[in-house]
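Q: Hi! First time doing this. I have a protein sequence and I read that you can turn it into a structure. Is that right? Here it is:
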Amino acid sequence: MKLLFLGDVMGRAGRTAVAEQLARLRADWALDFIVVNGENATGGMGLSAAHAKELLDAGADCITLGDHAFDQRDMNSALEAEPRIIRPLNYARSAPGVGARLFTTQGGKKVFVAQALGQVFMKRPFADPFSALDAALKAAPLGQIADAVIVDFHAEATSEKMGMAHWLDGRATMVCGTHTHVPTADARIMPRGTAAISDLGMCGDYNSVIGMEPLEPMRRFVTGMVNGRFTPAGGAVTLSGLYVETGEGGIARRVVPVRLGGLLQESAP
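A: Yes, that's right. Below is the predicted 3D structure, encoded as structure tokens:
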């Protein structure tokens, strides 16, 4: 199978770039399944139901969220109505929606997608992501029920993300870090066959401060004072993510970082 996971979509510019390019990428790369992290797609803070529909209509097979999952009020009802959107497993037990789901591709393959939030350096405490993902993956073992297993680990610390990659090595096709909006250079295949990267980066304008227009973040760094709202940058967008081809039993046999357009050096399968 050929899989693509795009990192955090940032604001209107990110949504537009995904809408304009995703169908072409699916066709050109013969993609079987596409995951998009959409938790910053609405004004940089959360995802609205309308903007979720934009990403799904563009060709995303699954949208993952993150710590901003419920910043937009209508996401509560959207999670109940739209099975292609998942929120973190280790959010509050009372949260709507689910944190893992088994999907069927147009070709009849089974793809299990799960997401969890990290604990290190996050603004609020979340339940243990390691045990949450451990339990979730037992419901759809790789190579048995699932032809591919994709994990979105939405976390701040690279050490925690690397720990998760080792924890799930051999049990997931790909373990992808999201959240920091900065793509890391450590895409690799782990010893037991899991493709891993500490952070996918964002689908946004990199002439920014992690996707935001620089002025207000710089003012806060320099003065320590808030003078206005963060505004998503609207310049040229780089689509950032990870492309993976699977081998026997659903393990990764090829992994390629994706950097298309914008300011970053272009790379693609």
